[in-house]
């Protein structure tokens, strides 16, 4: 599956002891009407209980300058939020990371079992993008930069 290039996101949610987040490449838009998105999370993820308990998430689209955040939020057992600036999404209070190229605030509507992962279907409540920023892309195990053609 590494042959398929993808954008890199960090999914965030409010947790009982502070914000919770994890790096996620399995995100996509499902429907425009109603506005639905989907993302997957490993059954073994330490973030899973917080995602389930809150039901509120923000999908943060990382910019190419945020490679360090992709790595930081992918690690387990570390302080993922060290030196991370963020603010709560007005719609649901989940963390929006500073400097992202866009974000989607959503409420989880459904959980679907899928092998060693769970797929979450969530209804979009609010979103924002920064058209001036460029995305962080992951392909064949390395980060890539897009070469824009005008």
Automatic annotation (TrEMBL):
Alphabetical list of Gene3D superfamilies matching this protein: Electron Transport, Fmn-binding Protein, Chain A
UniProt KW Transmembrane keyword: no
Flavin reductase like domain boundaries: 1-145
Pfam families given in the database record: Flavin_Reduct
Assigned keywords, A-Z: Oxidoreductase
Protein name, entry field: Flavin reductase like domain-containing protein
Similarity section: Belongs to the non-flavoprotein flavin reductase family.
InterPro entries, alphabetized: Flavin_Rdtase-like_dom, NADH-dep_flavin_reductase, Split_barrel_FMN-bd
GO MF annotation, one: FMN binding
SUPFAM superfamilies recorded: FMN-binding split barrel
Protein source organism: Leucobacter komagatae
């Amino acid at each position: 599956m590494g042959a398929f290039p993808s954008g890199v996101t960090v999914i965030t949610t409010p947790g009982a002891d502070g914000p919770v987040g994890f790096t996620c490449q399995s995100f996509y838009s499902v429907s425009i009407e109603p506005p639905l998105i989907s993302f997957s999370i490993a059954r073994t993820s330490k973030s899973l209980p917080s995602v389930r308990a809150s039901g509120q998430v923000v999908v943060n689209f990382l910019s190419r300058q945020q490679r360090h955040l992709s790595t930081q939020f992918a690690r387990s057992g570390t302080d993922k939020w060290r030196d991370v600036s963020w603010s709560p999404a007005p719609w649901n209070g989940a963390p929006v990371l500073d400097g992202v190229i866009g974000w989607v605030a959503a409420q989880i509507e459904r959980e679907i079992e899928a092998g060693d992962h769970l797929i979450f279907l969530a209804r979009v409540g609010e979103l924002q993008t920064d058209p001036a920023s460029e995305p962080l892309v992951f392909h064949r195990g390395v980060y890539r930069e897009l070469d824009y053609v005008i």
